[in-house]
Amino acid sequence: MADEKKIRVAVATKNGEKIDEHFGHADEFSVYDVGPSGVCRLETRIVEHYCQGGYGDEDKRDVILRALADCRALFVARVGDGPRKKLLGAGIEPVDAYAFEPVEKSLLAWHLLSTHVCNVV
Predict the structure, then answer these.
(1) Is 2 domain-assigned?
(2) How many whole angstroms separate alpha carbon 109 and alpha carbon 89?
(3) What does the pLDDT read at residue 33?
(4) Tell me, what's the pLDDT at 82?
(5) Of 98, 81, 8, 93, which Cα lies nearest the Cα of 45?
(6) Tens-of-pLDDT digits for all 121 residues of the chain?
(7) What CA–CA distance (Å, rounded) separates 30 from 78?
(8) Neighbouring C-beta atoms of residue 80, cutoff 10 Å
(9) What are phi and psi of 74, to 5 degrees?
C-alpha cells in the first residue's frame, strides 16, 4: 500500500472482528489505512468512553475527536445525533451502515463506494 492513496479510518470494535461498539461506549478505537489493494491495521488508540450513564461528557468527546483527527471516517455500531454532528464538524464521517459486519470486508466495501462517489462528475 506504499504507493497508493490510502484513507485512514477508525473502528469502534470490541474484539477487532466486527464493527460492534457504540461510539459512546468505546474505550478504544482500532485505526486502519484502507486503499485499493487492501486494509492495513495500524494501531489501537485508547480513550475514555464518552457516555456517562445516559449523558455525554463533552470534555471526553473533545479528547476523542482529537485522538481521531487524522481519520477521515469512524465506523461504529451506533452514534447519537450530538456526537454525529461533532464528528462531521471535525471532518470525520461517522459510518454506521456496516454495524455488526466484519471489519475488513466493511472497510473495503466503504472504500470502493466512497472512491467511486468522489470520482463521479
Answers:
(1) no
(2) 24
(3) 97
(4) 87
(5) 8
(6) 555 689 999 999 998 999 999 998 899 999 999 998 899 999 999 987 655 555 445 566 788 899 999 999 999 999 989 889 999 999 999 999 999 999 999 999 999 888 755 444 3
(7) 16
(8) 15
(9) -130, 120
Residue whose cell numbers read 494501531 = 43
CA torsion, ordered 57, 110, 36, 39, to nearest 10 deg: 50
Whether residue 29 is contained in a domain is answered as: yes
Give the position of cell 462528475.
Answer: 121
**Sign of the CA dihedral 77, 18, 9, 117?**
negative
Instruction: State phi, psi for 45 to the nearest 5 degrees.
Output: -110, 120
Span between the terminal Cα atoms of the chain, in Å? 26
Residue 101 placed within a domain: yes
Q: Is residue 1 part of a domain?
A: no
If one counts the domains in the chain, the total is 1
Expressed as residue numbers, the domain containing 41 is 7-118
Beta bridge partners of 4: none
Q: Which three cell numbers stand for residue 102?
A: 466484519
Residues pairing with 74 in the sheet: 10, 94
